[in-house]
Amino acid sequence: MRMASRLGSMLVVFSLLGGAAAVRAEQQVLPAIANLTAEQLFAVAFRPIIDNALKPPSMPDLLGDGLRRVAASDRTLGIVSVPGHLLLTREGVELSRVALPTDMIPERWANVTADMLRAIVAASPVIAQRGREQMWRDMFDGMMGDLDPYSRYAEPNRAQGERTQREGYDGIGVGIRTIDGYFEISDMVVDGPAATAGLRVGDRIFEVAGVRTHGLPYDRLSALIQGPEGSWVEMKVGPSEQRVRALTVRRRHLVPNTVQASLTDGVATIRIERFNNATQDNVRQAIQRYLDKGPVRGVILDLRGNPGGVMVQAVGVVNLFVPQGRIITTRGRNPSSIQWFEAQKPTTAFPDLPLVVMIDGQTASSGEIVAAALQDAGRALLVGSSTYGKGSVQHVTQLPNGGELFITWSRIYAPSGYSFDGQGVQPSLCTALPGITVPSLLAEAARGDRGEQALLARYRLAAPDDTEAMAALRAACPAKPADSVASAAATVSLARALLEDGALYRQALASRHINVAER
């Protein structure tokens, strides 16, 4: 790829969803957080807002709306905007005011924010009692709504979970539940450190690093198991205390596998739940395993319900099937947001496998990148409903308190030039309309194009500025979640039927492809 510019059970922190890295990161950050000031936090936060937001932000509006969200917890308080100032009032009486900067220097806006937050805390025991993290969260939530629908703040715990999903964690790769004070292994990463060392689902953990674990607080157990990548942890485990075995497990970096694969009658179904740092490799390995065992008639790529994730991994998945040409372009206000990604032949593993992609109204962001790029390349048939329509990229900034700020900084453009932001990606064959049947859709696939594709292309390019074109696109195939479509099963049946009839697949693909000049 080429890029321009630049219940009875409980999963604990070191489980499949967390990892030792989560706890270790908290231990590294907490001492600094204790002394963290609002000035320091918001100076870091305001920089990407000022530099990267799609449109230049109105800082007075941003600040005012954030402070109003904070003050809303005490109904006696109000935030009033007057020229050049913000006022804190109680029942209409001014308590404090701050002068607003006349420039866009983040530190100055951070100082004003901190001054007003201190005034609010001093004026309201109710807000003071809520704590500063909740106050900061309210501040960010109030501000983010002024930017766009997708910019957001993730508080520290949520941010850690999202980082784990994206980037992975250092750990042993186990899920753990508690039973009668014992910690029992409920799940394991396939080929992870725990599985390799000989731990089994159902084993109880009796001892870690020489410490008995029965009745141990979770935090203490977590501290014993956590550790950096490459380090070792000694454990005693077994189905019962009478059958205990000693093991030594080496911790390593693990990325959750969000890819599920199955093979039925020579057709591989690859479901991608979301895109993280391992998705491209996991898709490639899953398909290659089936090819190594025998012929594969085709691949169904299931992106239904996929909310997105790491953009470069979506580009990588496209590149597995497309050997050359543009995959996506991104453009925003910041010059660094202007990027383009192109397929590179050495990365392509499956250039000739017949491919059908299933999409629905919950397919978004990186899922839409894959669908749009494969469709524009003439490489895949899309079946299902139109997608969500989140054609934007978020710039992620890790904040000093451990939270993260997601700022929309660019829009995504398909190879044919349209932005699917708002309009989504339209399928080649729509299963979201009333009265559809698999035979009727197969008959539609068999007939040649009657000008629909050229009309679709015009609508796509016009939609961002043409409400009629946007309405026509959405009406042609409504965006619906798979479980709301009366004929949801038809999507799977249609995908399989297209791959089982090679001639029909080729005819449908050829008649629904528009040459992309940019490629």
What does this structure look like?
The chain has 519 residues and is an alpha+beta fold. It has 3 domains: 33-147, no CATH class; 169-254, Pdz3 Domain, CATH 2.30.42.10; 259-512, 2-enoyl-CoA Hydratase, Chain A, domain 1, CATH 3.90.226. The protein is 38% helix and 23% strand. The protein is built from 17 helices and 23 strands. It has helices spanning 20-34, 38-52, 59-71, 106-123, 125-130, 132-144, 156-167, 193-197, 218-225, 279-293, 311-321, 366-376, 438-446, 452-462, 467-476, 488-500, 502-511; strands at 2-3, 77-82, 85-90, 93-99, 152-154, 169-171, 174-179, 182-188, 204-208, 211-212, 232-238, 245-250, 252-254, 259-264, 267-272, 298-302, 325-331, 339-343, 355-359, 381-384, 392-398, 404-413, 429-430. The strands form 5 sheets. Strands 1, 5, 17, 18, 21 and 22 form a 6-stranded antiparallel beta sheet that branches. A hairpin with a 2-residue loop joins β14 (259-264) and β15 (267-272). α14 (452-462) packs across α15 (467-476). The longest helix has 18 residues, at 106-123. The radius of gyration is 26 Å and the shape is flat. It starts with a strand and ends in an 8-residue tail after the last helix. 45% of the residues are buried. Mean pLDDT is 87; it is low at 1-31.
